[in-house]
Amino acid sequence: MEQQFSGGLADMSGRTAVVSGASSGIGLAVARSFLQAGATVHGLARRGRLIDERARGAAPEADRLHHHSVDVGDPDAVREWARGMSDPVDTLVCAAGTNIPERRLEQLTPEAWDSMLATNLSGTFYLLHALLPRLREARGDVVVVSSVAGAWPDHTGPAYQAAKAGLLGLARGAGRDEYGNHIRVCTVLPGIVNTSILDDRPEPPPQELRELFIQPQDIAEACLGAVTLPKRACIAEMTIVATALQSMGNTQAATPTLPQAAEGNTRSG
Predict the structure, then answer these.
(1) Hey, which residues does 187 pair with through a beta bridge?
(2) How far apart are CA 109 and CA 211, in angstroms?
């Protein structure tokens, strides 16, 4: 389907999207943006009912939002859900992710490692695998939400960083394999985003700093732009960082020229 634009705004009318992690953060923002652009959205999350509660207002037509309680890190659950969901799918956004406070290498356990990779990395493969025939048929779009943490060391910890690096490799490989089937694969690599996952940091950042971070809606707008770009063009990868924190590994200090710097908020690290 060739994307159309109306009045300068992306139009997803007639399209059907699957969005993982859609109960909060980036996934929820993507679901709401796609609904506002006219798409039918199937949102996936462990607590699927929250999707309906939080995204319903973005779609005046009640039949365009569908919520599903699915743990994307469970391959059997993803397979069973896909078999029971008969709609065509032309857009897939993989935004499910998690982290833990005990994230340093010496704190990680094999169980925590496996759980992190299941949600943050394997879940994307499970969804791609389950929906690939439909995406091929629709000549669809896939957006994988990775992170700059996949390439730059930061506060997120080795397990999170390994999973996000794996997502970049998975997306690159999928894009190479599937371009002949007219599937576009875009990887979004955000810097620090103001979501509830920050509450799982050993030391959560203060609210005044969170206001400088990328907001979930910023990533949602980037995803919307990627999937509504004319089919002749593909945004293979895009890195998005907060304007006040332009250094990729700098997630704790504002740019010195900003007013906040005068208040002493200039430490790096």
Answers:
(1) 144, 237
(2) 33
Q: What are the C-alpha distances in Å from 21 to residues 49, 106, 109, 123, 242?
A: 12, 28, 24, 10, 22
Signed CA dihedral, 84, 85, 91, 97: sign only: negative
Strand partners, 68: 44
Helix 158-178 vs helix 110-117: angle between axes, to the nearest 10 degrees?
30
Mean pLDDT, range 72-76, rounded to an integer: 97
User: Would you say 29 and 221 are in contact if contact means Cβ atoms under 8 Å apart?
Assistant: no
Give the closest residue to 226 by CA, choosing from 236, 239, 241: 236
* Encoded amino acid at 161, one letter: Q
Which tens digit of pLDDT belongs to each residue from 80-116? 999 999 999 999 999 999 999 999 999 999 999 999 9
Please give the Cα distance from 240 to 226 (Å, whole number).
Answer: 13
Q: How far is the C-alpha of 34 from the C-alpha of 150, rounded, in Å?
A: 26
From the list 135, 160, 166, 214, the catalytic residue is 160
Kindly give the interhelix angle for 216-228 and 25-36, rounded to the nearest 10 degrees. Answer: 50
Number of neighbours of residue 117 by Cβ within 10 angstroms: 17
Q: Which residue has the tokens 């332009």?
A: 246
Could you say which DSSP state residue 205 is in? P
Q: Is 126 a catalytic residue?
A: no
Distance CA 185, CA 141 (A): 6
